[in-house]
Design brief:
Blueprint (H helix, E strand, L loop, with lengths): L4 E9 L2 E6 L2 E7 L1 H11 L4 E5 L7 H14 L4 E4 L5 H9 L4 E4 L1 H5 L2 H10 L4 E10 L2 E6 L4 E6 H11 L3 E6 L11 H10 L4 E4 L5 H9 L5 E4 L1 H4 L5 H10 L7
Parallel strand pairs: 1-4, 1-12, 4-5, 5-6, 6-7, 7-10, 10-11, 11-12
Antiparallel strand pairs: 1-2, 2-3, 7-8, 8-9
Amino acid sequence: MLTKRIIPCLDIKDGRTVKGVNFVNLKDAGDPVELGALYSEQGADELVFLDITATHERRKTLAALAREIAAHLNIPFTIGGGISTVADTEILLESGADKVSINSAAVRNPQLIEDLAKRFGSQFVVVAIDAKMIGDNWVVHLNGGRVPTDKYLFDWAKESENRGAGEILFTSMNHDGTKMGFANEALAQISGLLNIPIIASGGAGSMEHFYDVFTKGKADAALAASIFHFKEIEISALKQYLKQRQVPIRI
């Protein structure tokens, strides 16, 4: 059985790590490169860096950030935010990123997933999906969760896989920052539909939540932010807890 992965996520705004609740009320959480180095030392399996205010002006900024991260870290990292072309991706991968995360651009132009997979390989392409439960449906949102679309979570996740995504990063907007646990029912449903790894995001608040997301949610990796940034849970202690409960994890 493949080992489960613990992935700290660093949301970046104006060069600083920030964290909010339900995608709003952002608080400063420190320097992203320093935090990333700390998490690497503590045993994180991977890192995700997302520029949450990414615009067309951000390409150079992101490339510089990728180079700095690569110079200080020895674990894989994914970078995302405002990536909308093959050229954007090429620059980031050449700057040291191991994978790129695409979100809004993929919804607006699904062909982008195919283009990136064909050019670089599926293993470099993470499709991030921000979805919110509205009525009986998980509705996909864009632009940092601000714009609802006509796409639904399970259909879009399957289409993304079919187009060449190597991983799906699903963030539940309903759970984000609440520390009440992950969207395990939806995660288990996605896991049953897809044959590629699923990264769970949104809702981590305790070690038990990680156990639940791997057992009930069937996730391949769990991503969290504030509980790591504000030192509520240490990664090394979390991994020991999971190992003791028979979750396959790299110590």
